[in-house]
Write a structure and sequence with these properties.
108 residues, mainly beta
């Protein structure tokens, strides 16, 4: 079994000239590695704070995946599901979202 890895990435989206930062994004990355290439973690969806509305938009859920090979080609396979905590009436925003992904890996 591998270690648990936690990392957060911050990003500030500038607003108008009078307001230097309108939105701040925080993407927590938490991954636990297991045997045979399996892993589990948080979905790759950022949390966003809007200074204008004083609200957080968050998505809560999980991801499970495996790094394996198709023949000689390494791939990362994963699925994730998450709940969107804020329902915006003036926008199209799903309550639940899911993602299934295949990433072909080309190690150097």
């Amino acid at each position: 079994m591998g270690p648990i890895r936690l990392l957060g990435i911050f990003f500030c989206q500038p607003g108008h000239r009078s307001q230097p930062c309108q939105n701040v994004s925080f993407q927590p990355l938490l991954i636990k590695h297991f045997d045979k290439g399996w892993y589990a973690g948080l979905p790759d969806v950022p949390f966003v704070y809007d200074f204008k509305t004083d609200n957080w938009t968050t998505a809560w859920g999980g991801r499970i995946g495996r790094v394996t090979k198709f023949g000689k080609q390494p791939v990362n396979l994963f699925g994730q599901v998450y709940y969107n905590s804020v329902d915006k009436d003036d926008e199209v925003s799903p309550e639940w979202s899911y993602k299934v992904n295949i990433t072909f890996l080309f190690p150097a």
